[in-house]
Amino acid sequence: xxxxxxxxxxxxxxxxxxxxxxxxxxxxxxxxxxxxxxxxxxxxxxxxxxxxxxxxxxxxxxxxxxxxxxxxxxxxxxxxxxxxxxxxxxxxxxxxxxxxxxxxxxxxxxxxxxxxxxxxxxxxxxxxxxxxxxxxxxxxxxxxxxxxxxxxxxxxxxxxxxxxxxxxxxxxxxxxxxxx
Length: 180
Hints:
By secondary structure, the protein is mainly α. It has two domains: 8-53, no CATH class; 66-178, Rossmann fold (3-Layer(aba) Sandwich). 38% of the residues lie in helices and 3% in strands. The protein is built from five helices and two strands. Strands 1-2 form a two-stranded parallel sheet. The protein starts with 7 loop residues before the first helix and ends with a helix.
């Protein structure tokens, strides 16, 4: 199984390895994803480091810790907020705008249950660092599946729902953390 997290010492070792392979001390680095290696063709003084020579990306087959999720679900039940908790597939959109009805219909068709502009980047970093992760996202507005649906989502609605549910989220997180 591929290693999914690296300690500070291991990351320092990787950094030292890369610095030992070049005299350059660049102010800008470009990490090209799959198929984008051609972006560097026009650069002068380029240094290339094949991925196979440095650690890869963490596995995301199971990014969330099952025991931690079970603890969250048990705490929610104890606090009598289990009925508002839902499990599903969270899809991240970069924002900073609400999704169009076409995007919502597509993401639902491919298995998305909830859409948001956060959580996923934080999970990627945490999993890469070897941190046990469970995701709790407060869903603050309804998805608009049709252009004729009203009202449209707005930031005021998001803030209001956040205020209404923040006490429940705080109680839940306090309960879970105290049991760790």
